[in-house]
ROK family transcriptional regulator
Amino acid sequence: MSTQIRGSFHWMKSLNKSIILNKIRMDGPISRADIAKQTKLTPPTVSSIVKELIESKLVIESNQGESSGGRKPTMLMINASNFFVIGLDIGPKWLRAVIADLNGKSYDSAIHHIPASITEQLLIELTTDTIESIFSAHPESQEKVIGIGIGMHGVVDADAGIATYAPSLDLRNIPFKEVLEKKFNLIVKVENDARALSLGEAWFGKGSNSEHVITVNVGRGIGAGIVIDNKLFRGKHQIAGEIGHMTIDLSGPLCDCGNYGCLQTLAAGPALVKRAVKSMSMHPESSLHSFKEEDITGKVIYEEAVKGDAFCKEIFEETGVYLGTGLTNVIHTLNPERIVIGGGLANAGDLLLDPIKATITRKALTKEAKETEIVFSNLGKFGTALGAVSLLLVEMFAKAE
Ligand SMILES: [Zn+2]
């Protein structure tokens, strides 16, 4: 790996470079003169930085643009496919990895099962092995990787790059940043997985072009990543976005956190299944009775609902009302432009989306709040890994104030 590439992330991070890079990313092909006008940097500053960016192959000159007379200006574009970032999603059960270019186009991906009995040391080994195998499968990309991003479940100290507590694996204090930076000589960013997904949505997905976007992950639990002014909001003690523990029903079921009626005890995947199993005896006509109790999953209930089973449809309807109630509280607290829903329940489509939207329309305060856009994520099962890629990109491409 060349010294130039090793230092390149820090080199790119100078503020004026980032501002110019972001201008070219958002508005390219664009001329030097327009960059200067729109960023308020002086033309000589723009010229000298653009020269460096072209020498580093980050920016290329494209066809000449229109001119109102005189010489046609040369247009500039980001050379997105010439650089790569490796993104990892380390969840409770699976480690997913992608290698993607600066546009978020994935060139390859890998997935490994994480055994429940894994130790801190073994998880670090699994992570380094995964990265090494990506490098050996793509020797041509080795010189072009600018960094590694990790979206890790549980509590993460993003500044130190440490996974402080991963409850589902019962692991503590995994120093990913320190170990991987030493091993690969690349910059490493670590973030909580819901926040990484949220940033990925804001950068590449359904949230792009929205400055305030909230991504809600509805799976085994419920968590949200909050992006305000295109930046992640973590709160003073890193718990901003723990909307799964928002109280929805004071006399609801007991939650892992010790409170009653938290949103995730009513609307997460396991809660939906539990509710169906508990009340199916009151619906003897339901096709769920043809399944063994232990075989009833969210997917089964969804499939039976699609086939027309009224009881299964009702379970989704109720879940949508709970989620819509929680999201109305989020809208009233943060007033986002858009809410993106990801995670396992995002596969339920209109069965879930219709009651969510109807509930928000019923409950939200103003006409504009009622019309807050609610969409499902389209980044797919590697969405969090792509979000981990965006952890590096947000620092490379800074917005001019
Ligand atoms: Zn709770």
Summary: Residues 1-6 have pLDDT under 50 and may be disordered. The radius of gyration is 23 Å. Residues 3-78 form a domain with the Arc Repressor Mutant, subunit A fold (CATH 1.10.10.10).
